[in-house]
Amino acid sequence: MSPTTMLAFAAASCGIAMGLSPLLQLRRVAVRRSSADVSVAYLGVLFVGFVLWLSYGVAIGNAPLIVSNVVALTTNVLTIAAVLRFRAV
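Above: the chain's sequence. Below: its structure in token form.
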């Protein structure tokens, strides 16, 4: 495996792990049944970034960018939904 391929694999893996990381916050919100200490603005900034990177990945046809940002966008949307749901509790 070439160094470039190894780097691509590492970067794509890290991108997916980063995309899944909001699930840690989602778990905390679900356990505490409160999202009072979660910044919705921060999640909103991440949302915009994920949409832009996904759009860029689609525009250039880059599968690793597309996959990692679909994962990230999905977990971000789930986290935002949970935060808003438990904000009213």
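The mean pLDDT is 90.
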